Structures are given as C-alpha cells and as structure tokens.
What we know:
Elements: H1 20-55, H2 62-67, H3 74-101, H4 105-116, H5 124-138, H6 141-144
Amino acid sequence: MNENPFAPSSTVEPSKLVTFELARSRVRRVAFPMTLVALVSLLVSASVGMYALVNSEPRFDASELLVSPEASGGFVGGLISTASLPFANLLVLLGGISMFRMNSLTNSRVAAIICCTPICSPLIVIGIPIGLWAALILFSKQYSVHFRSR
C-alpha cells in the first residue's frame, strides 16, 4: 500500500535523532539565559510597579467611578499593566526552569512564545532573540522527544 509522501511524519528518523546528553546540553544552553533574563526582568518590573503604586495617588472617588468609568484616569490602567508584566515574566521564569529540567514541553513552549512577544518579552532587546532561539529548539522534534510528558 502506498503511503502519502506529503503526510507529516509522526516520528523522527533515527539518523536525525540526537542523544539525550547532547539534547540536554543544547536545551540548557538556551534555558539558562532565558531564566536569567526573566528573573532580572521580574525583579525590575515588580520593583518599578510597586514604586509606581506606592507613589501614585488615586485621582477619583468611588462615586465618580459609578457615574463614568473613564474617571479612573491612569490608576486602573497602571494597576493592570503593573500586574500583567510581572505575571508574564513569572510564566517565562517557570517555563525556563521546566525547560532546564526538561520536565514539561508545553510549559517551555509557552514560555518561549511569551518571550518572543514584544509586549510581554522580558528585557525586550535581549528577550526576543532568546525566545526565538528557545522556540527553534523546542519546536524541533529531535529535541522535543527527550522531554518528559507531564
């Protein structure tokens, strides 16, 4: 019976498969910088966000908020953006740790995609190339077969 030559292969050819030790060293080579950049960015964004929240004054009354939602000014938007960037950095940090341990391929891929996103990327200039590097490795079948599925 003829098989479809255009069908995606579900397995990696043994000649293209790398050893576990080589895969682990290449994955860790990108996991360490990704984790380090996410940790630095998490500390910076959390400290800047806390400083902004402590030193800002709410410019609205609760009664004004019921009348017009835009009366809240920049405080609510600042609160949302202050909370979202550290959350994205925390996801990249946890994904980098699971990538370093080669535990969860899904968490590692999500962290690489977040790291590639310009708005969420930790330390944008450094984070985007590291995220692309991690995505190239994580979406390659020759490395992804060595991750434990959990």
